[in-house]
Design goal:
2 copies of one chain form a homodimer. By secondary structure, chain A is an alpha+beta fold. Chain A has helices spanning about 10-25, 25-30, 50-60, 185-190, 195-205, 245-255, 270-275, 310-320, 335-340, 350-355, 355-370, 385-410, 420-430, 435-455, 475-490, 520-535; strands at about 40-45, 45-50, 65-80, 80-85, 95-105, 110-120, 125-135, 145-150, 165-170, 210-215, 260-265, 280-285, 305-310, 345-350, 380, 460, 495-505, 505-515. In chain A, strand 6 and strand 7 (about 125-135) form a beta hairpin. The interface between A and B is large, with 72 and 72 residues.
Chain lengths: ~550, ~550
């Protein structure tokens, strides 16, 4: 089976396309794909539909490593005027359709597979559909630093038996370094002597570690676009940002590499990737889960939490890790979560103002569906307070603490951190003691107001302004709106859960519930009740 | 873009095919693929051509995890009598050709992509080409136990800087257990305190560890089909055995996951996978590379060596690891390798008798090409001695030592080892002291004869009887012939290199060179000289 019968002009087009791939000649590649909305291109990262979506993706991908075409198989499918019954055309004519399936051999080992449907349009052979399998890597380094089967075995029985954990690279695992998303930091780190209790609790319950997953540098980002290791794929939306800073655990869970993401949330680092990738994500009450063995970003707001694909798993994890019986790592007496939370919701108006129209509509539809359900909860609009003021106070204290934690290291390692995170630290370095003190005062009254709101009801609102932005989008505006939505719970130290209840233009958006401090397990129960009521159809 | 316009009978066929996939109904799946030699099916493991090849593969694959079809995109390509210009047929007719590209969403997370070209033949829609991307796993557990980016960083400079190593799961890495290809053994193992010198030498030279790669259980096999973790893919031949027992390192190197496989060869465990996967593989002189920190199989024959994709890399590794200057792990004074080996070859007739006809022909063509080259070496046929006797003596001593090493553990863990390896150990347990002593005596004269042969010339012969057997083949006969070919060098403790110089029916077969004890580096040099002369075209 050879390429002997490929029409000459088709072979030339195929060869020219292959040269353009290896050279990463974006214009040439664009020109080889048929224009219009019907053109298809897919790989392990997902399926892109339409020439423009395909073109947009190319800018992100970078070139392919050196390779040769080892085999080409040609199957004529249609001639301009008729389907091909047998034989092969010597000369091609307009409207001809042909299948080319080729195997590429990479010089550095490994093989790839390309399936292309070509059509002759206006005298040129163009690709109308392509399916690409690149050589398989040993691991996806955008998601994982290290991964195993298992990476570390947990107890052979327990309530989390059989589940696997992606550990964000901020937690101590005995014998391993903490990398914090930065290769220079990793290089200089020393192996940890003791496993963080948040990790040990999971192991003791029978969960096993799948591996150490990527984080944005020092967890100081919500985008998930680590400049050193690349951007992990969004498991729900092709070509979209994964959300950060718990990007690796989130993508690992979304893609089925692990069942539980052990993560941290300072300003939204669990809730944002949960919303972007259609996951459940719980930010716990501040100081509920002890943070020994976790690299801090800003101690006043740092919390530990989990990402899962479903509410039942998150419930099991929270039940174990937050209950007095199960956990050696928490001092929670479980009492506050023993009672159910009130079935009564507050919609904070200022937060809703940050939400994009399509997402706001989906959220309204969900509330309407709830109101029309068998178990309609009361809803009431409330004022969450000035979000600019909340965020400013939050950012000031966060920055001051982050600089105290990492400033010395950053000063000693100029250029070691990516530009966006470096700029954030630079701004943080300018914060004065007076500014910090004033911000702490502001936070006290902000927290008091929010605590009052959730005393007898639960806040409900979309987790983020809208679906995950495409990786090609300018994310600064989204970032500002997002942090205004996620900062209040962080500023008040309240538990917050993101539940994948909305679908906007085919992409998931989370609904965030915020409740009283210490009611974390009850919050998960409430979220499951809400999700069961909304069902899979509501809010779409 | 939806599936609204798919003809009803095509949609029914697609749905029925999907049900058959999830149910792993092999007969139904076979029936959905068009008969004949033109049908194509490919995935990351490679491309299968022809209905029978596709059908044979299915038996190996097992089912797919639970999933739903999330999207289907339909593109009519040809109608029975004409190419499709626009619009879509409401009813399909014979000869119609259609493209269906579908996205599957796995219940356990992750997505897959299927591209199928369907053709209506005799009233039934059948698949004439398919390209499948399953959900990507965190790691390929058939190849790897643990993998990282890097798994362990080597020195930041050195002669092997930038190269990555797949370490066979028989070597100690400080902080990690040795798994030996058996999950029960791994479970009970304790973390190693000291890294094996063979590993440390590579790290010190700047290579980094990519991870811990799979081995056949206790290295007591040459097939590479570990019953616990599955069979690693052969990087060169779709659906073929990878070769063992160094299966994981070999597949990792062939697929480009790592540059160097650190492996062991007792009876052929480096040479066999090298030949099967088109790699360079060096079994070193017995006792040249100290084996501290390596789990033994049979101390009289155990050796350490390396697998690479090219001769230059193997040369660099051998130069460093075997030279007095570079290595802390060897006592070789390098002297024996300072001189070149004689450019004079001996073809052992009894070994050649084990070779399959097509491979023997390819080998003869290669010898003829060498004879006609600018630098023709003299060749002479010699007698290697009775291979049955050699193998019997080898197997007796190997078995006795293997049982002394692992017998106690095996007795304490009935059922913990796969049937083929268990049977091998059972036979080993029957060997008497008298039989072992007699076999050792036999080995002395066998080794003396072989040492005499390689004193002034180099043995040359195909490494194994032929290309890697398909995983569906009955491999017992091949195994017997293979071990008769690989045992002599092992019995005599001689260095042996397998060089990928032959191609038989599209598959690689190695040429084995065996030289005087201690001439390992010179043997690599000689192999490179030979490979340069043969070039890429000779021997095919």
């Amino acid at each position: 089976m050879t390429d002997a019968t490929i029409p000459g002009d088709l072979r030339n087009a195929f060869d020219a396309y292959e040269r353009a791939i290896v050279a990463n000649d974006l214009d040439a590649l664009d020109a080889f794909f048929a224009p219009g909305e019907d053109t298809l291109r897919g790989d392990g990262g997902g399926l892109l539909v339409g020439h423009d979506a395909i073109s947009g993706f190319r800018a992100l991908r970078g070139g392919v490593p050196p390779r040769e075409i080892a085999e080409v198989h040609y199957r004529p499918l249609a001639r301009g005027g008729e389907a091909v019954a047998s034989g092969s055309p010597e000369q091609s004519t307009d409207g001809d359709i042909a299948l080319l399936v080729s195997v590429s051999a990479f010089r550095g080992g490994g093989r790839g597979l390309q399936t292309q449907v070509w059509q002759r349009i206006d005298g040129r052979w163009l690709i109308v559909a392509a399916h690409v399998t690149p050589r398989t890597p040993a691991l996806d380094r955008t998601i994982w630093r290290s991964v195993g089967d298992p990476f570390q075995q947990g107890a052979w029985e327990g309530p989390l038996e059989g589940l696997t954990v992606a550990v964000k690279d901020l937690f101590a695992i005995a014998g391993f370094r903490i990398g914090a998303g930065n290769p220079t930091f990793l290089e200089e780190a020393r192996p940890e002597k003791v496993t963080a209790p948040a990790v040990a609790d999971l192991l003791r319950a029978g969960a096993s570690l799948r591996g150490i997953a990527r984080t944005d540098e020092f967890a100081y980002s919500i985008a998930g676009d680590n400049v050193h290791y690349g951007t992990p794929p969004n498991g729900a939306v092709v070509g979209a940002l994964p959300g950060g800073s718990s990007s690796g655990p989130a993508s690992a869970v979304a893609l089925g590499h692990a069942d539980i993401g052990l993560a941290t949330d300072t300003a939204g680092s669990i809730r944002v990737p949960a919303s972007y990738q259609g996951l459940w994500g719980l930010r716990t009450t501040h100081d509920l889960v002890p943070r020994q063995g976790m690299l801090p970003l800003a101690q006043s707001f740092d919390t530990i939490g989990w990402l899962t694909r479903d509410g039942e798993t998150l419930h099991r994890v929270a039940d174990w890790c937050l209950s007095y019986d199960g956990s050696a790592s928490t001092e929670n007496v479980y009492g506050a979560s023993g009672d159910d939370l009130p079935w009564r919701f507050l919609v904070p108006e200022e937060i809703l103002d940050c939400v994009e129209p399509a997402t706001r509509e989906a959220f309204s539809r969900m509330l309407a569906a709830l109101a029309a359900s068998d178990d309609p909860p009361p809803f009431r609009a409330v004022h969450s307070g000035d979000l600019d003021a909340t965020f400013t106070a939050f950012r000031t204290v966060q920055g001051a603490e982050a600089w105290r934690n990492d400033g010395e290291w950053l000063r000693a390692h100029p250029g070691a951190v990516g530009p966006a995170v470096a700029e954030r630290f630079r701004a943080a370095s300018q914060i004065t003691a007076a500014e910090e003190a004033a911000a702490r005062l502001d936070l006290e009254s902000i927290a008091a107001h929010l605590a009052e709101l959730v005393d007898g009801a639960v806040l409900i609102f979309p987790t983020v302004p809208g679906p995950a932005p495409l990786r090609t989008a300018d994310v600064d505006a989204v970032r500002a709106a997002t942090l205004r939505m996620t900062a209040p719970a962080a500023a008040a130290g309240l538990p917050a859960i993101s539940v994948p209840l909305l679908t906007v233009a085919g992409a998931p958006v989370g609904v965030c519930l915020v409740s009283r401090a210490g009611t974390d397990i009850a919050l998960v129960r409430l979220a499951r009740r809400l999700a069961a009521l909304v069902g899979s159809g509501a809010g779409r």
